[in-house]
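thoughts on my protein:
***
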Amino acid sequence: MKNRICKLLHIRYPLIQAGMVWCSGWRLAAAVSKAGGLGIIGSGSMYPEVLDEHLQKCRGSGVRNFAVNLPLMYPQIEDHIGLILKHRVPIVFTSAGNPKTYTSFLKDAGIKVVHVVSSKKFALKAEAAGADAVVAEGFEAGGHNGREETTTFCLVPEVADAVQIPVIAAGGIADGRSMHAALALGAEGVQIGSRFVATEESSAHSSFKKRVTQANEGDTQLTLKELTPVRLLNNGFYQDIVKAYENHRSADDLRQLLGRGRAKRGMFEGDLEQGELEIGQVAARIHQIMPAAAVVEQIIAEYREAGAHHLGGRFSF
């Protein structure tokens, strides 16, 4: 394997399933890892006892190589890190915080650390903190995004030219053609979220999965930038946000409107009207709920068909 991401993460394909809140449990992570990619358990929506259960079940499924997404602002992060050490998780993807805080500690424990960034500035900080790789995530991505609103097509080459460590592209990638484009731009792997939401193993509610497959162009919007920018599907809750902006409501008013548990209510419990439905722009190109392994196989087949083997063999796999 000539690809640095494949070597670093010990995977067959440089294809990573994003650690999405309420959607990325052990079943999805195990399925993607077994198919040759890297599955990630999204710990940001899990209490410590829930994460413990998911880690036990992922280990029990026979998967040796998987990762945990660790939001650095999670209130019980010390408990999560303790569980990561207890279950000997080999790889951690950190996000939403300062990578200097825990990168050295995790690496000293023998864990590979990849940090998610939305700008060249933060990529350089992650590299300086000792991260083994970075995910350069453009603002097309679903869920919480950076404030820079830089698109993946602009961000990936900017980051790839700035750092020496491998770069993983994310945001707007859902098939082999977009994977091919990302690698041509200087990435050495891709992280895919929205496409894996609409899989059989995703822990998202079936109604949310179906709504994703029905999304059309322009159905998602980046909003709530005064709080934490988030990309949402248009629904009743989103229209409430629009009205709040029209009435010049304050950040505190927006925070009160958002409340607690909106994402769980929408993505996990299936309230399609008043829940928070986080998904990427690429949802408009997702039309079918499939097994995760079939998604991996399809993306790799499309990648090869797109002519990736013409890149001087650099990214052949």
